[in-house]
C-alpha cells in the first residue's frame, strides 16, 4: 500500500488538497534546486552523470517531490551519505489520456520543478529513479491501449530526465486489472530492451501469508513469466496487512522467496538476487509500528541473503513529529515514532554503500527424469512430472491442471 496525501498521508500517488502542503512543497522545491550550492540554471545545463555503482538504485528511498512537505534533499544527503532517491509518482492525466504526468496533474512535458530537484541531486553526486503507479490515481497501463503505447509514454519520462532507473509500483487497484498489468509489464520489457543498462524494479503488495504476496501479486508474476520479462528485482511491501515488526516482515520475505523460485524456476540464490523489500518507517496507516530496530533487522536479513533492493516509504516521513507519537496518528510528513532526523534514510544509505554481490551462477540443469505430464492422469501430492523442460512436483491431488499455470504444481527447476 502507498500514501495518498490529503488524509493521513497514505495512498501514494494523489496530491494533497491542503494549501499549506502545496506552499511547503513549493518552498522545498525551490531549495532543492540549490543542493550543494548549484543553481537551477547551472544544474539544468549539466549532462546526466554516470550511473551509480553498488546497490544505489536498489537503495533509493521514496520521495514525493510535489507533496507532503518535501524536504530539501541536500541536507539529507550530507547527513546520511544517501546518494539515490526514488521520486513518486508518474500517472496518467486525471482527465484521461496516454501522456505521463506527476500525480495526474503536472505534465512531464512541461515540468521544471521535478527536474530542478533531479538536477540538484545530481549536482551533489547522486542520482534518481522514478516510480510509476502507486496506490490510487489512474495508471498509464489503464489508459494506454497496449504495451507499445504505454512504453512510449514512459519513454518520455526516461528521455526527459535522462533516467538510468525506473520503478513500476503495481498494486491496488491497478493490479486487479489484467489488461493494465499486461500493458505495464509489456511496457517494462520494451523499455528494458530499448534502453540498454536501464535498471527496472517492480514493487507490489506484501501479505503475511506463506507466499509473501497475494493472488493478484502472483498473477502479476505469472504475467511477467509469460512475457519473458525479468527485472532487476521484485520487491514486496510488508506493511498495512497485519504485520507486527520485523519478524513478520522477514517471514513474508521468505515466503516471497519461495514464490519467486516456484514461479520462475529459479535457484534459491537467483531468487534472493531478484528479491527486494519496500518498508514503511514509523507508524503505518493501519497502526503497525516499524522502528529503527526493525529496519536494522530487515537490513541484516537483506544483506546476509543477497537481496538487491532495500527501500522505504518515505523520506518525507523521516523526521520526528511534535509530539513524537503524533498523538497516535499516522502522518505523511513525519514518522509518529521517536527518532533523529533522517534516521531511517541511514539504513538505505548503508545498503546502497555495501558492495554489490555478483549475480549468482546457477548449476547446469540435470536430465529430465520424471515422466511427462499427462492431462488425463491423476497425480497426488509428492508425484513429479516433466513439462516444458521443467520438473514439477504435485502439492496435492490434481488432474488436468497444467504445470506452470496452477498453484497445485511446485516448479522444481529446469531440466534437459
From TrEMBL:
Name all Chitin-binding type-3 domain ranges. Answer: 370-412
Q: Which branch of life, at top level?
A: Bacteria
Key words of the record: Hydrolase, Signal
Instruction: Check the record and name the CDD domains matching this protein.
Output: ChiC_BD (cd12215)
- UniProt-listed PROSITE patterns: TAT
Q: Where is the signal peptide?
A: 1-34
Keyword Protein biosynthesis part of the UniProt annotation: no
The protein's name in its UniProt record: Chitinase
Q: Which organism is it from?
A: Actinoallomurus oryzae
